[in-house]
Specification:
The complex is a heterodimer of chains A (421) and B (526). Chain A has 421 residues and is mostly beta strands. Chain A has eight helices and 21 strands. In chain A, strands 1-3-4-6-7-9-10-15-16-17-18-19-20-21 form a 14-stranded antiparallel beta barrel. Chain A is elongated, with a radius of gyration of 24 Å. In chain A, 43% of the residues are buried. The N terminus of chain A is likely disordered. The longest helix of chain B has 17 residues. In chain B, the strands form seven sheets. In chain B, strands 4, 6, 7, 8, 9, 10, 11, 12, 14 and 25 form a ten-stranded antiparallel sheet that branches. Classes of the chains: A mainly beta (421), B mainly beta (526). Chains A and B meet through helix 1, helix 3, strand 2, helix 5 and strand 12 of A and helix 1, strand 1, strand 27 and strand 34 of B. Strand 2 of chain A pairs parallel with strand 1 of chain B, so a sheet runs across the interface.
Amino acid sequence: MVGLNWKITLFGCFCIAGFKGHTQQISNFFSDTIPTLNSSTSGSFDYGSNISNNQFINKFIFGGTISSDDKDNLYTNLHDRNVVGGDFNLNLQVEIPVDSFLHRKNFSWIVGIEHTEHFDAKISSDLVKIIFDGNKQFAGKNAQIGSTNFNYLNYQQLNIGFINYKESNGKSAKEGAVFSIIKGQEHQAITIPRGSLFTENLGNELLLDLNYIYNSSDSTNKGLKAFNGIGISTNFFTEFNLNHQNKVSIDIDDLGFIQWSDNSIQIEADTVFKFKGVQIDNIFDINDSVISSLSKDSILEYVSTKKDLGGYSVVLPTSLNINFQHSFNTKFKAVIGLQYRVLANYFPLFYTNIQYNLTPKFIVQGNLIYGGYGKFNGGFTFAKQIKNRFQIIAGTNNMGSYLLPSSTYSNNGFLGLKAYF
Amino acid sequence: MRFLLTLLVVLTLGISCRKAIEKPDWDVSVLAPLLNTTLTLNNLLPDSVLQVNADTSLKIVYNTNIFDINVDSLFKIPDTTIAEIYTVPLNLIAGPGDSFYSNDEERALNVSNGVELNFATIESGFIELEIFNDIQEKVLVNYKILSATKFGDTLSFTELIDAGSPSHPGYFKKRFDISNYDLKLTGIAGNKTNTLVTKAVASVDTNGSTVNINIGQKIKFNNTLIDVVPYYVRGYFGSQSYHFGPETTGFSVFDRIVDGTLNIENLDVSLTFDNGIGVDAQLVINQLKTINTHSGANAPLTHAIIGSPININRATQTPIVPEVNYTHYQTTLNTANSNIDNLIELFPNQLQYDINLLINPFGNISGSNDFIFKKHPLKTNLKVEFPLSLVANNLTLVNTSTFNLEKSSSGNINEGTLLIYANNGYPFDATLSLQLLDEYSNVISSLSVVNNIASAPVDANLKVTAKKMSVLSVPLSSANVEALYRTKKMVIKIAFNTTSQPQFIKIYDGYGIDIKVVGDFSYQIN
């Protein structure tokens, strides 16, 4: 179900070309040096995996038959830390300049709303093989399914913050913070620190040694209107001009947590389950109840030893971003940076951008990335200013996902629109 | 404004595009246990027919009721309406409270078959009373059924009937529940039978006016007995003949056997008559035969009892519970004095009987104290008992189970194999076959089963020494799987052949076949 949500949202993101949330991607273009009354909306999607290439991911998300070749390619990439993850973000923001605030000039309030979905998972190699090829391959053997976790978050937030336009080493720079109140819509998470599945050689029994915790927000209350949790978060960002040509930017996003409601579910177990088939009194009574005993829900009941209702809190996958920007001249500059997300099965993402102003109002940028949820990839961003009132920025770091889907492991896209008043 | 419009268009396109999303699919190979059970004879035979002998061998003991003779068989009290009409004989002037009619009346019940009842206790039933009043003032009627008492109280009511006229009489109707009432049916003088006594008293309403009651004006009472079911009756039931049959009754012990032969080493059958009725009876069994409606075979019983009168003494009544001391008559049927083995070995599912019954063959020797309780009939039972020491040849049992494997949106079976691990503790081999039926019981497909369940080894005493493991497989092609998804019923047939034939093999308590069903499937996940 979570997967389907993702498929829908990601596809929707393709269709609407994205309304981006990667603030730093947009602010790199036509950067404001003084407070202005403006409104911006943006969207982005971002997903990847260090084991499955885009061809595989695209089939998984958008449909299609995953062939034996697809699976063999997947298995060649398996190693100790197999991760997959992604984000989808929609953002609407208004910047309102004020004459002064606490004796500060060049100060703006920002107010906005935002929708975020995030998932990430770390999956053991054997579990990947079980998911895509079944357990028969492990007949007579133990399949290790521990060291696995999955986390899905879906929430909306109301943002209130400020931007301070400052001077740093003789050039303009910005700093600010955003404080958010979060409405939690849905959360699902499973953590399996230890687990193994033994399939008896002839299939006579399955032995599941499992230590897991499953958390879910109120599953009876779904959709955008669902208010299943409340939380807070903050974003901080700042820039320093090292000199006339060099600048350092630092962002911390989504530092916060969500407290999920008392109707949330926690299921846990730390035991060994031996399944020898559904025990029936009379083989002539193979009726609906026996068949339903083999259903997914019944098996979940079977492997749960403790089920509780109650609230719990979840730390958001906080993002840290630092980059260094060097301007060669008024038309040409380069950026190198590092992004990391805590508690999100994320590898450090290294990126570099080369930006060139074709005209004062049209900028093209080449992007190269390595890490995150995927591997190496590259792309382009285009930024256009229209009549000094509108800006449109669109791009991707992952052109490879379209040109070489079998050799690239991540995809993203972003689109930003900004209007000045 | 243009910006907002553009945004709206883009969002609309986005939402419409979402519908185009398809599901991914891939195949996995699943190897997992599905079912785990132990098959015993208890699963194959009707409930409670297996009993354990002292040496732990098993025997079948099956009791079935052939027929009952009860109160409904002997007589009925039909719904009856009895009218009582009072016609004013001369002109009267009656003031408020003046009584102008009082009468005790005997009312005969129309009891069938010439049965003469002097007492009855009613289990359920009603008396419906209608009263029509021609007099031009309200009339107070007190109506009693003097014969009907409940815990000593007479059935009685008093009701004000509306004023009327000969053309538009005042009308009253009421239904009385007479459940649990005792009815004394001997009339006013106590020397009659089937006779109720009623008493009606009519007077002018005490709150009414003085009224002229003219000659010819009437008060009419319609008294109707409805759905009367007696719990107990007493009287003389007459010296009467009854004929029952030919009628059939079910015989379920072999319900699941559809083919093959079975030789039984010993067979004991007893036919018993338990009389709970307080009448002497003489019963003649004209015919008793077993029928297998599936094969069309039937076998009439040959035994000295057929066609010979059987005298069954009357039951006696007791003042305590149970209210009746039954009398019993029993005759034994075995292979030495009858062909009962022929009747049993055709695996009957019906018994057919034809009997004559004569009650009170010696007349009214009870002094009109014949009795019958509804719950104590004359019962005829057949008890079949034989040890499970037998020779079975292709003895085929069949069972039809409901089955509903629905397709899932998240995944379905492509093809595969059902593996059946059977660890057999019985001294017979077994061949399994499976048939798939739709909701109308039409055959969709048959599943082939590779291999048989082999017999367990036996020692010199023909006792099982160890279990024998057999692995059967049921290949499921994609066509078979499609058929499984359409299946609503599954017919499972098992054919048995005992080992060491032609010797009789005893079946002992504790024998069983451990069965495990393992699925080895290719499964498509969506």
